[in-house]
Amino acid sequence: MTGTMKWSKRLTIFLFLLPSCAGLLVFSIIPIFYSFVISLTDWNGLNAWDAAAGVPAFRGMGNYAEILSGAEFWRVLRNTFYYIVLYIPLILIFSIAAAVLLNNAFRGMGVYRVLFFIPVLTSWVAGSLIWKWLLSAEYGPVNELLSFVGIQGPAWLQDPTWAMPGIVMASIWKDMGFFSLIMLGGLQGINPNYYEAAQIDGASFWRRFTAITLPLLSPVLFFVMIICVINSFQLFPQVMIMTTDAGPFGATQAMVERIYKYAFKYYKMGYASSFSWILFVIIFVFTVVQFRLQKKWVHYDG
Amino acid sequence: MQKPRILKALSLLAAFALTLVLLAACSGGNNDPEGNGAGTNGAQSAGGDGAKGSGGGAKSGGGAGGKTEQVTVKFANFSGSGDPAPLLEQMRETFEAQNPDVKVEIETIGFGDYFTQMQTRVASGTAPDAYELNYENFVSYAKKGVLLDLQPMFEAAGFDKSVLYEQALDAFQADGVQYGMPASFSNVVLIYNKDLFDQAQTSYPTIEWTWKEMNEAAVSIRALGDDIFGISQGVQFFEFFKAAQQNGGSLLNEDQTAFTINTPENVETLQYMVDRIQKSNVMPTEAQMSGIGDWDLFKAGRLGMILTGVWAFPDFVQNVEFPWDIAVEPGNVQKATHFFSNGLVINKDSKVAEAAYRWIAFMSASKEAAQIRVDGNWELPAVTYPDVLEAYLAITPPDNRQAVFDSLEYLVTPPVIEQFAEMNDTLTLHLAAAAQGAKTPQQALDDAQQELTAKIKLE
């Protein structure tokens, strides 16, 4: 039987796989390669392709060179790093803290877990509009709270320095539930015997947390890190809605926002496709580097 | 031995069935051109099912012509969404009564999704026969050669151009070719709060006013209170391009081959706009606005003057409790006013172009459609029929509605360039930097000049 499957069985397998493969092929794989071809041209997204008439014109790596040599790309990259530097540490801290809290056996814990998860289910459009109001300089509750402790809050979304932190706050509110749920899963997978043994030895809560919880949670943390970095580079809806047209003179311009504008507003599909391929390469490199680094801190035992 | 074989046969059958379902789903769109048309006819086609229904659209419309006398014109638009939907429907009914051989299939798509959808459909050759475009996108479409030249249609139908405002019609030319007709238009006027003028003991704006008088009035109104402001005018592309002209400047040189963003006239213009925010503070900063719009500020009675379009009228009539009126926008060395217009165009590959032309000409230039617009308070028709305009003028407030038409004498149109939207966003970005005081006007315009020269192709 090895290697020589009956033709009817092969056909059956093929036909069963066909519906989902066709979808993958038509809606993902072909567009991926197609977008690379587009990225080598100056296609405007409107005219039909006509090779004989030279529409669109072939530009080779021209789009890529133009993007990388322009100031805009580097500004957008800087904005993205500003976001990442704030977002990643905060989301990790908040979601671990939430997970540790939710891991207790209080009465009605199910309700609390649901409450933490609700923002994840809220649409970004609704969430962004709420945060736009929360962060309003004069009427917003955030600045109201700050004024109680004597701080004059900034005009969050209108100020080039504070617009991105405002976006980060909204993103943390939105994503915390999702990541703490994943972390909660990780916490519940830790063998309680370790904690018992540590308690008998008289270890403090902090000591137990750093010596048991963190190392044993590290595979989950690693997963969360990877997802967070990818999500950060794909920052989009909150920027589009909270800061119309990417904020105070471009302070919240992000990669996907640029790609969208170039493709559908400026009619430069070739340029936009090149931008997405550059984004892909960046995300790919970051993910590979993270996988390399994981040996240093991720423990796969427990 | 019997059982497995049956199972095998069954699973093979199941796999075939699945595949068939998939194939059927894929080709479903093209199966019934006739039934399709009947199903989505009318104003209800707003939203998802309308969009899907006309997936295989342009072609089936043409095919139907051979079978019966009637042809179907597919028409897509965004400005008929929401309140004006019944008005658009009314236009369709009137048109079909006059043209029994044409059936118009209206598809209304929300503004947010409209241009992404149109782009995809034009590129894939399934664009509707006629559709609406706002000015920014009109330029891009026209320059890319996907629209029909209307001149032959005008000639064949003996169209009298004088029924339309010349500037509004000319706005839909590119490289001297008429690619569109104005559906509606709205110009920008100075709207003011009479109460605040009275309190500040300042006389009301007149057509003689210039920047100087406007500024003085703004200062005395600003003095009325900490949270009362004199004026609001956006620091963005359209306002700047117009104000620059009021000051004798312009964004491009005369033959439109080079940017002239950082000329002394333009720097002076921006300085004037920025000083109102940063120096005299007669106009609120972004922080003082803190996310609420200037219309709301005006409606709350905290703003003396606002430069905005006549599309504010329906809202202000309903929601403003104090007396207000309008005046022609003041200029500096000369007057310049600006208008926004949505155009109607015909797909270059439409098989029913003649019928499509009759429909857009009806919407744009007929007295009936204009009357429906005026009665329904749906922007302003671009027509010159005296009795229709009479009816428009009779509606108050504002008392000085005549200023809407007086403004037309000073109309200026933005430069017609292919990368219009990109130019708009890029310049606005730099203007905003100056408005917030992050850059000096000189520096902001120098940067804008440099970036625009690098990014925007001018023929």
What does this structure look like?
The complex is a heterodimer of chains A (302) and B (459). Chain A has 302 residues and is an all-alpha fold. Chain A has one domain: MetI-like (MetI-like fold, Orthogonal Bundle). Chain A has twelve helices and no strands. Chain B is of the alpha/beta class and 459 residues long. Chain B has 22 helices and ten strands. In chain B, the strands form two sheets. In chain B, strands 1, 2, 3, 6, 7, 8, 9 and 10 form an eight-stranded mixed beta sheet that branches. The A-B interface holds A 8-9, 11-12, 14-16, 18-19, 22, 44-48, 70-71, 132-133, 135-140, 155, 157-160, 245, 248-250, 261, 264-268 and B 8, 11-12, 14-16, 18-19, 21-22, 115-116, 119, 122-123, 125, 140-141, 144-146, 286-292, 419, 421-422, 425, 428-430, 432-433, 436, 438, 451, 454-455.
Write out key terms for the chains shown.
heterodimer, A: 302 residues, mainly alpha, MetI-like fold, 12 helices, B: 459 residues, alpha/beta, D-Maltodextrin-Binding Protein, domain 2, 2 domains, eight-stranded mixed sheet, two-stranded antiparallel sheet, 10 strands, signal (chain B), maltose binding (chain B)
Q: What would you give as the CATH superfamily of the largest domain in chain B?
A: Periplasmic binding protein-like II
CATH domain class name of chain A: Mainly Alpha
Helix content of chain A: over 70%
The CATH class assignment of the largest domain in chain B is Alpha Beta
**How many strands of chain A?**
0
How many beta-strand elements of chain B? Answer: 10
Assembly annotation: heterodimer
The main sheet of chain A comes to: none
Order of helices and strands of chain A: HHHHHHHHHHHH
* Uncertain ranges of chain B: 27-67
| Percent of residues in beta strands of chain A | under 5%
Shape of chain A: globular
CATH architecture of the largest domain in chain B: 3-Layer(aba) Sandwich
Query: What is the count of DSSP helices of chain B, taking H or I runs of 4+ residues?
Result: 22
Which percent bin holds the helix content of chain B? 40-55%
State Rg of chain B.
26 Å
Total discrete domains of chain A:
1
